[in-house]
Write a structure and sequence with these properties.
Elements lengths: L1 H6 L4 H6 L3 H60 L10 H11 L4 H5 L23 E3 L6 H5 L5 E4 L18 E2 L9 H13 L9
Antiparallel strand pairs: 1-2, 2-3
Helix pairs in contact: 3-7
Length: 207
């Protein structure tokens, strides 16, 4: 046996220096499994982070949308001494058309992102989750309107797309134009600052 090894030019040292093919394959498989596990864990964490960031961006857009609509309602009331009187299933669409038809409020609605319009005709406003907004006028006898000093309210159903009509649990993530939710009354402060900027001196009407 030793002669065979010497004749072929292979020494015992050479045999020890080159592991068998199965051993190499086994080590490669373990390394591949480790790499796959690390990549999978990284993708899982990245997906969770992106999903959370996307939801936060949508909520911020909803707050800004409702803030602009409330600002339009304030401007409309200052110009006409009343609010859009709309009720029923198409109340938000009717109120939107009323605001679009008025010279003082049209620029605010035309400046809204195109993503919040369901149709090109700019009739139906939807929240960042794709649900049409609701509008409660002072004549609707809504508890939200009463809590808002009889001022109208636009409402977004939030991420779960549920207004809580059947199950009150659905109200938890609703976003209203009079209250941005658990982050505090940032909307009220923004509206106060907007009114201070837009309010003309000596109570005169602004242009």
């Amino acid at each position: 046996m030793a002669r065979t090894i010497r004749a072929s030019g292979i020494t015992a040292t050479d045999l020890n220096a080159h592991p068998t093919g199965s051993r190499v394959a086994a080590m490669t498989l373990i390394e591949m499994l480790v790499v796959v596990f690390i990549v999978g864990a990284g993708l899982f964490l990245l997906n969770g982070w992106l999903s959370g960031a996307q939801q936060e961006a949508r909520r911020d857009l909803a707050v800004r949308l409702l803030a602009d609509l409330d600002r339009a309602l304030i401007r409309y009331h200052r110009a006409t001494n009343c609010y859009p009187s709309s009720h029923g299933p198409n109340s938000a669409a009717d109120a939107t058309i009323t605001l679009l038809d008025h010279d003082r409020t049209r620029p605010i609605l035309e400046a809204l992102p195109i993503s919040v319009w369901r149709e090109r005709g700019k009739r139906t406003l939807v929240d960042p989750w794709g649900t049409p907004l609701l509008y409660f006028s002072p004549a609707s006898d809504s508890p939200w309107v009463r809590a808002n000093n009889d001022r109208p309210v636009f409402v977004s159903a939030g991420p779960d797309r549920d207004f809580g009509d059947i199950d009150p649990v659905g109200l938890g993530d609703n976003v209203r134009s009079d209250d941005p939710g658990p982050n505090g009354f940032r909307l009220h402060q923004a509206l106060r600052e907007t009114m201070m900027i837009e309010e003309p001196p000596n109570g005169e009407e602004d242009d």
